[in-house]
TrEMBL record:
Protein name: Phage protein
Positions of the UniProt region annotated as Disordered: 1-66
Bias (Polar residues) ranges: 1-16
Superkingdom as given in the UniProt entry: Bacteria
Stretches with biased composition (Basic residues): 23-34, 56-66
Length: 66
């Protein structure tokens, strides 16, 4: 008795099926990425990042935080 693999091979030989060829795509040349500029922060940006200009909570009249 033939194995399943042998039976498939025999069936393929007796029943040729059209094989679709894969379409090849042209490869695009890779673009070189521009060099990154070093970040420069303004004084305002630095204060914002360090939270120095942030309002602080304090107790007002009646003991509530404002």
């Amino acid at each position: 008795m033939k194995t399943m693999k042998e039976q498939l091979q025999q069936w393929k030989n007796t029943n040729p099926m059209p094989v679709e060829k894969k379409k090849t795509q042209k490869q695009k040349p890779k673009k070189k990425q521009p060099a990154k500029q070093p970040e420069s922060f303004t004084e305002r940006d630095m204060k914002y990042l360090m939270n120095t200009s942030m309002k602080t909570l304090r107790r007002g009249r009646g003991g509530a935080y404002k």
